[in-house]
């Protein structure tokens, strides 16, 4: 597949998503977001390309990648075209300093297109919401964001107010985890007053909830609240919609990279292991 074909495929995919959303249907986008959760290290456009060419993909690698784990691509299988950055070493710079100068087309294959040795059973998220609450709290605080639990006005579950997050006390683990991720997404996506003035409330809420949905799915959970009203993201403008989805993917990927890396997880004390779900952060007075 050539670069111009990839570009047309991406453009067609975004236009198709827009068309279905304008008719009030978001099933197609839900499918793309499931792939974003499954392949969180891939860009939104690459997830879109995978969704168009192999919507049921579960694990993809290049030809040589599969060879390295004892599997080979079946004869006659067609590769899934995606893009990869072209990195070059900067002039008069150290060997580890590179810059991106465009992209090239590469091909990957889903495991269903291969045969050979069985892959080792990999540890996957179990869907236990309580397990992820403390790591998310740790991630929030590691970014210099104050985290509190307390009472909120207007029936809100959480509030983000620039370097400060307040979560309603007493939420059950699934909802508590989702709200923590939702408010963290606000802090990462909408980090200053200028950004929050430029974007409508509907766009910001939809972006934050979309991040929460992708992250929860990647952790083996279903989001309690679905971010189905995607029409607010674009108002029919493909470019605006595409940029918003890229922000969502980048934010969700960053959160998941931290959560799924053992080095990023907090070391629990004996007390916190005995009470992993206690709201030990600053609690607001009722």
From TrEMBL:
Domain of life, source organism: Bacteria
Region (Disordered): 266-286
Residues in N-terminal domain copies: 32-108
Name of a matching Pfam family: ArdcN
InterPro entries registered for this protein in UniProt: ArdC_N
Any one GO molecular function term: single-stranded DNA binding
Comp. bias intervals (Basic and acidic residues): 266-278
Protein name listed in UniProt: N-terminal domain-containing protein
């Amino acid at each position: 597949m050539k670069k111009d074909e990839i570009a047309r495929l991406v453009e067609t995919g975004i236009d198709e998503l827009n068309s279905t959303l304008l008719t009030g249907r978001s099933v197609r986008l839900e499918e793309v977001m499931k792939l974003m959760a499954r392949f969180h290290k891939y860009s939104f456009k690459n997830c879109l390309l995978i969704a168009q060419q192999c919507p049921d993909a579960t694990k993809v690698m290049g030809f040589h990648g599969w060879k390295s784990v004892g599997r080979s691509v079946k004869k006659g299988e067609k590769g899934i075209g995606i893009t990869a950055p072209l990195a070059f070493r900067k002039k008069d710079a150290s060997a580890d300093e590179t810059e991106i100068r465009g992209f090239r087309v590469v091909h990957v294959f889903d495991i269903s297109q291969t045969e050979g040795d069985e892959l080792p059973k990999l540890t996957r998220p179990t869907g236990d919401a309580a397990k992820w609450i403390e790591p998310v709290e740790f991630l929030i605080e590691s970014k210099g964001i104050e985290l509190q639990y307390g009472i909120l006005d207007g029936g809100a579950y959480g509030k983000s107010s620039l370097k400060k997050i307040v979560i309603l006390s007493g939420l059950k683990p699934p909802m508590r985890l989702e709200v923590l991720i939702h408010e963290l997404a606000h802090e990462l996506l909408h980090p200053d007053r200028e950004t929050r003035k430029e974007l409508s409330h509907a766009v910001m809420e939809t972006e934050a909830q979309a991040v929460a949905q992708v992250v929860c799915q990647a952790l083996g959970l279903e989001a309690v609240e679905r971010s189905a009203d995607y029409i607010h993201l674009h108002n029919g403008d493909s470019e605006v919609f595409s940029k918003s989805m890229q922000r969502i993917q980048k934010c969700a990927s960053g959160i998941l990279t931290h959560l799924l890396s053992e080095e990023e997880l907090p070391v629990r004390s004996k007390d916190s292991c005995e009470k992993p779900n206690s709201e030990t952060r600053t609690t607001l007075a009722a």
